[in-house]
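ugh ok so i messed up the first submission bc i forgot one of the chains. this is the corrected input, ALL of the components this time, i swear. 939 residues overall. if the numbers dont match what u have on ur side tell me asap before i send this to the collaborators (the ones from the other lab, u know who)
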Amino acid sequence: MPLLGQETNQVEQLKKELQEMQQNFERIQREQRQQMEALHQQIETLEKQQSSAAAEQAKLKNLVEARSAAPPAAETAPKPWSPSDPIRLLGGPHSYLNLSFDALFAAGGSTANDIERGLQLGGHDPVQRGFTVQNLETTFEGMVDPYFRGQANIILQIDREGESFLEVEEAYLETLSLPGRLQLKAGQYFTEFGRLNQFHPHVWDFVDQPLVNGRFLGGDGLRNAGARLSWLAPTPFYSELFLSAQNSQGETAASFRNGNEGEPLFGRLMDQGSVQSLGDMLFVPRYAASFNLSESQTLLAGVSAAFGPNGSGPDTDTQLYGLDLFWKWKPVNHNKGFPFVSWQSEAMLRRYEAGAFDWDRNGDGNLDPDEQDADGNGTPDLLARETLSDWGFYSQLLWGIRPRWVAGLRGDYVAGSQAGYEELLGDDLQRGRRWRLSPNFTWFPTEFSKLRLQYNHDDRKSIGVDHSVWLQFEFLLGSHGAHKF
Amino acid sequence: MKNHFSIHSCGPGAADTNAPLSSKRKHDRSGLLRTPQARSHLLPPHHGPLPRGEGGSFAAVRPAELDEFSDTRSALFPLPGGEGQGEGKTGAETRVSVSILTETVVGCTNSPVGRDSCRAPTFLRERIPGLDGVSPHPFCLRLRRAEPYRSNLFGYAALFMWFSLISPASAKVNVVATLPDFAALAQEVGGDKITVTSLVKGPEDAHFVDPKPSFITVLNKADLLIEGGADLEIGWLPPLVNNARNAKILPGASGRLNASSGIRLLDVPSGPVDRSQGDVHPLGNPHFWLDPANAKILVNHIAEALGRLDGSNSDYYAANARQFNDRIDRKLAEWNRLLEPYRGAKVVTYHKSFDYFLERFGLALAGTIEPKPGIEPSPAHIGALVARAKEEEVKLVLIEPFRPRKTPEYIARNAGAKLLVVPEKVGGHEKVKDYFSLFDYDVAQIVAALKESK
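and heres the new structure output, hopefully the right one now
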């Protein structure tokens, strides 16, 4: 069938044509791709060239257009991150964990014989003549996910006996964008009470902790596991309201359910007790506000309170009130943050309801070896319920003279009301009037190291005057998060 | 707590209807007025286009923010104060009832108490347009003292909450920039459709900025945050953003613009970096805004970001960006022409702040006074630098206004060069009010100094 044959031929010819067209199409596509690649290469080589001003300007315009058309991410990320890459320690865009290590040491001596927890109230203060390892702090910090930021500060210390011990100072998460201007913090954290209590020892401006902090918030600061909600008020200036609920026991809640390690406190043996109701938790409200007094002056002021049960009896509470003020002058044309003058002060008042206490521990009415008979009447002491009032403040002035050099002066004062148990047992050193004056001088080779010399003039009621000189040095490794104002 | 406040701001006849509402929410402190019924009373007559809860609708505290930043902003961009803060109608329908603690305070425009007795405190009246009792502000309040010494605090707290609730939103996009230069570029693109605030001030050293708490308040209200990136603000910005409770400006969000993206940074370390080399920025030199060609890239990104956030004006932003870029092209030719005769002239700078400027205009960096980034010079380094500057015939010692003068003066004097102090940021000198005048001023100064030393 010739007609059919002709048709078959035609079909074959058409098929052939189609194939040719397909090949042509593919060839053109290939060529164009090559041309595009060549153009790309040309642009790249142009980028590297340095030519005359006129040519450069014309080229520049093309480049700018070509660059802004391209997605910016492609240019800034030369190599995608992979999980096997080493962890970045310098911050930057690929960081999953910022890790830093800070070491703080002191060397020096004092005329006092009770340096640890007598003269020096802080848990990270210098505690002996010679060297003290004050604080070896490892900080882990980073974004947890789109909702939380996490931070942990693990402290290593070496005590007077040379034993190393570990302290979980903080480990908490913080929300990033709760609605309603709210922020939630939960975990183990430094309570937002006053100003200094919120900062780690390595950013303090003096070698040691102020006396008010030591007496009322404890040597290791007021911190515990808990949760805190804060609300950024919609005011024209910064103002924030905090409310924290935390555990009320342990040595990091010194004025509250402090077990006190078997040593008597305020003439009594303490009993941590246990939590029976919500009222047995520690509640800490705080309000802080800040004003820019001028272009170069900033004021940050806060009022805080802390309410919780204490360990001196079954129905005894502590109320702690605090007032803090921070003022800083730094001219608008500062060089590396210098010069500056800052003034920081905190005042605190504590009402401590001390419960009635019977030293007849076994209840037999007779004086036994582990029982106390301070008045010497042959029977164990009986202490009445009473309220102890204590107060104090510190005030410090810093002068950043020129880049790297800072001079400081701090004054401390603490005192307490005469209590009933003191009439029986004599003056309590932990509540007696005391003042201290501390001038110091700090040299910062960079922001990552410092050297500080401090003198303390201490005057304690019933002990007298003591002199101490401490030299402190610090270094910081890794990516340490920026500090707040 | 024995003393408490609530504020009633009410229209005619509101006194009756307020009573049940206020008593119902006596103890409702932070969760103010959650019910839809209550909210309908609270929303201003007309509120902004942004969704509730995004911070947009309650942006009207903004005029008061001028309190802190007015100096910078008015110096840079003379905006009419309080513009865009639409006044609510003298709302007969609008009632606000905020009960902060547990007592009641009444304040009504039309109450027998009268207008003057319910004025806001003087310090607020002076700063916030519309708060003055004489002006036709829709609301009026009075704080009755329950206990004389504590009541003011609660009264003010109530007043602030009142502000956040009644104030109508501004339709403008609220841009916050870390540096005044980014703010100036944003202003070029956004014109009168945006408000701009710069956190850093012109004369300041941008590496060492205090994270002032007021910045948190500013960032909380931002729709767009422009940062330099490349670790420029790493020492102070992250905790502020973390505390600002503003999802719009978190890293990676649509309201966060990294100004260095898409820009070829200089001095990107090729080998390993550690701090024995000084404070080296591992991502490269972050002073990139001193090359006008980089500003062109940034301006395009700003126009993109603004268009994304405010789609109805995206053409306006794009047109402004094009105009800016054309103008930069013309000015760049002019600046190049002025500096052409001095091509290859050698300069010494304090820090590596002017590298982008020098590269763009064909000047050569012979050395820096800092031996390593951020490290203060030792006498040995100064001596060596003087010797090198002499040998290489350095013409200029170029420093920013905030640097100390003694060492640069010594080097200039001994090397036979001229010391020149020029701003590296907008606002760094009184004559430098925008991005163009920064270069006009710097180029003119440098040309004059080089002419003299020729």
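quick check: The longest strand of chain B covers residues 173-177. that seems consistent at least. Chain B has 14 helices and ten strands.
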